[in-house]
Write a structure and sequence with these properties.
- With 170 residues, the chain is mostly beta strands.
- It has one domain.
- The protein has four helices and ten strands; from the N terminus they run βββααββββααβββ.
- The strands form three sheets. It has a four-stranded antiparallel β-sheet with strand order 3-4-8-7, with no helix packed on it.
- The longest helix is centred in the N-terminal third of the chain and has 8 residues.
- The radius of gyration is 17 Å and the shape is globular.
- The N and C termini lie close together (11 Å).
Length: 170
């Protein structure tokens, strides 16, 4: 989840809230990962370390995933939100999961290992329950992701796959 704050709008007894990421527009409410491209290795993300040291933190992402899974991290999620994903017009089953955010792993643990430091417990990536998983039928299909909050605001992404996994991904 990018750094940010909860924003609150109060109008008499009507209260609305949302997460506002620093440096991003208000409609940036989720990030998607093409797990076929999420492969965390020392060569790619911590060249001064080793795959063995990084694997402890990378977990499932230390091995290639080639089953066309896509993971969606929705930082302001609550049970009244909906998540819909279609693959070239066909709806896909969306499953809520608990998982680690791979971008957090490469942004914290990998960078610390790369400079010879040990990741501190304060910044070790933990599991989060605002993750969702879908399985596409092809590694190159385009997905339409629509996330709708409890107030009816819809946030969308057209995910062209393969989608690169980098430190600077949006």
């Amino acid at each position: 989840m990018p750094l940010g704050d909860m924003t609150w709008e109060v109008d008499s007894s009507d209260i609305r809230w949302s997460y506002k990421s620093i440096g991003y527009p208000q409609d940036y409410q989720f990030r998607s990962y093409d797990l076929n491209t999420v492969y965390i290795t020392a060569a790619a993300f911590a060249p001064n370390s080793t795959d063995e040291a990084l694997a402890e933190y990378a977990g499932v992402y230390a091995s290639p995933n080639q089953v066309n899974d896509v993971m969606i991290n929705i930082w302001g999620y609550d049970p009244q939100w909906t998540v819909e994903v279609t693959e070239e017009g066909t709806p896909l089953a969306v499953e809520r999961i608990t998982a680690k955010d791979p971008l957090h792993i490469i942004s914290y643990e990998a960078k610390r290992l790369n400079v010879g430091a040990v990741p501190t417990s304060s910044f070790v990536t933990g599991n989060t329950s605002h993750m969702f998983l879908v399985r596409a039928s092809s590694p190159t299909s385009t997905l339409e992701i629509t996330v709708t909050d409890r107030f009816g605001n819809a946030y969308t992404e057209t995910m062209t796959r393969p989608k690169e996994f980098t430190w600077s991904m949006h």
